[in-house]
User: Fold Replication restart protein PriA from Roseiarcus fermentans.
Amino acid sequence: MARVVDVLVPVAVDTAYSYRVPAGLVLEPGSFVSVPLGTRHATGVVWAEREAGGDNLKQVAAVRDWPPLRRPLRDFVDWVARWTLSPRGMVLRMAVRAQETAAPPAPRSGVVATGKPPARMTDARARVLAALATMQDPQTLIRPPAAPALSLGERGAEAPPTPSPPGGGSRHSAATEGRLDGRPLARDEGAPPVPKSALAEAAGCSVGVIDGLIEDGALALVEMPQETIGGDLDPGFGNTVLNADQRPAAADLAARVASRAFSAILLEGVTGSGKTEVYFEAIAEVLRQGRQALVLMPEIALTGEFLDRFAARFGARPAEWHSGLTERRRERTLRAVASGEARAVVGARSALFLPFADLGLIVVDEEHEGAYKQEDGVIYNARDMAVVRARLERAPVVLASATPALETRVNAETGRYAWLKLPSRFGSATLPDIATVDLRREGPPRGRWLSPKAIAGIEAALGRGEQALLFLNRRGYAPLTLCRSCGHRFECPNCSAWLVEHRFRAALVCHHCGHVEPRPKLCPECREADSLTACGPGVERLAEEAALVFPDARTLTLSSDFPGGVETLRRQLEAAARGEFDLVIGTQLVAKGHNFPSLTLVVVVDADVGLANADPRAAERTFQLLRQATGRAGRAEREGHALLQTWQPEHPVIQALVSGDAERFYAQESDQRRRGGLPPFGRLAAIVVSAEDKGAAEAHARALARTAHAMPAARGFRVAPLGGLPQGEEITLLGPAEAPIAVLRKRHRFRLAAKAPRSADLQGFLRALLAAAPPPRGGVKIAIDVDPQSFL
Ligand SMILES: Nc1ncnc2c1ncn2[C@@H]1O[C@H](COP(=O)(O)OP(=O)(O)OP(=O)(O)O)[C@@H](O)[C@H]1O
Ligand SMILES: [Zn+2]
Assistant:
């Protein structure tokens, strides 16, 4: 009998392939191995090991020296694949992609002073030694010196230092005594080495000067200790004194962490109640245990403020994980996570697949956020999968939100999740009072978007030296451009969607596929000049109006598509938080999570934006977004106000926001969903069939429906007959129908939906359906979306 392993390879296949293990090779489940796959080699992970007659099998080529993929993560891969109906290899890809692409860490070295004076001293050499002393001074370590060679004192860095007169200027002689400006030159134990290039830059000389000093023995080249990533965290660094609401919640979470058992907890607290402070106490307990914590955030790129708060509480920043990291950083972070060195990671949804050594806690911040849903490839909701991973790791998972998803609320109500509540804002802050502006009666003049009431409110706030936020969840200048003379509308050539004008970029852009075209001078249809007109507002247009109405206000407009990327956004948000702007105009990006202490007024320019959607979650999502947005006001001492500009002030969502009665809103929503058998009271899956050829997509979608209705009842599910009302356990199949976005990226799309009672095996049904249906041909693709968030 030979030893055989089943190896899962990170490609779009579901099965693990078997390979023979060469004698002498030590493998265990989870080992990374290189295996022949077709004509090439691939890196895969050992999924199982057994004794078998493996004579006709290919051999494992090599073992990689990566830490093995631990059992909980392997089980997680299997679980996610089963749940989402994705090939296991594709899910594995998410867990190992980083390893695959990672560049090997480059060895890094730096110089330190030896304390031995150089045999010969020159200006340049003196500058190097001075710069090094400064850079190694713990006082300046916190913030690396922006101006180089600070210790040269009054003369500054720009003026090249002239040789000191013998005896008079103490600098050189001091240097030869091993001190410079009172700073010890000798290598402090622990003084960090400085890379040669950085030192040369700081001293304003060439690397050659440094090499000379090394040869002379005054400097030594040493291996740089790798910067720790997410390590060196101190649970007692910056203790926060919690208030009477926060204390029991924090104690509860800490006790759960200490128990090392799975549990799911909804931490529901109004905006500004200190949810972050509370779950920090759970993280502190994880650190005391020497384990690891993961915090998921929906907008990871914008968490500058969070990182600073984290550092103030724990003495250092957590590791970050998101798509904006450089390759080297990814690789370093990955290793730090796998080795357990990284004690805390804050990340986007993909961080859920990191190979933690000893995960003791997962926090999903703003758990209701749609951004947790990945809509392509493996279609999954990181919030739900976080609960699964926590269970496999036997760790608690905290779902934090001021406006929890209805699913989560129901899980808390039924006791599946524990429920911790923070009913009021921290300190003396109170929730903003919310009023409506009825656009039917109190609206702005044509072509304007700010009502007189809103303008008066903003003027008053600015007059008091406070900030105002104009919230409009629409990027660009105008959502639709048309020709006044012939009525031509600009549509995306790849999608059934209007092109959005971005005046900033002087372009028309498709928000679905990214198609960009210049805004023409003539109408392409009727050749009329200057006939194009913008319909409706986006944030750019609002900024234009604000500049007109408030010419003296310091205004900041923020949108995720503005140039400068994440770092610029972070800096601008920080500046806004410091009060450097009077008026902030932005999309949902500014609505969430930020603390702007002097912000007292939020104007929601178009509260109806999300309500027009016909999807089952439209009301819930609008409620969440607007409550978050209005929740930015009045977070410090001063009272906050919010104005909702709306055409339908009587709409239940608007009413719920105004009354602040979240309980009633959730109760109504629950009721409706229960009656409709919609999640969380029933289960939904969408099947999207697409092809470049419309006929092919439609034909296949119909074939799927026919197959479903012809399927015999099986254990776990039965398909309801067409036209009839579903009985008990039956699954209803709806559609196919052309998708609301009928064409996306040149592909025609048809949707089917499966609606099932909670007790039915929805995934089992979908699997059986795909197996029984004819195989897709002619470029037809099928995407299964379990628990869809989007109905487009
Ligand atoms: N115990 C505390 N001691 C000092 N400051 C606190 C305390 N609790 C909360 N704060 C402060 O109150 C503000 C709001 O807290 P935090 O951001 O944690 O609230 P949140 O519930 O997460 O809010 P949101 O849901 O709106 O993001 C912050 O500035 C925070 O520093
Ligand atoms: Zn498009």
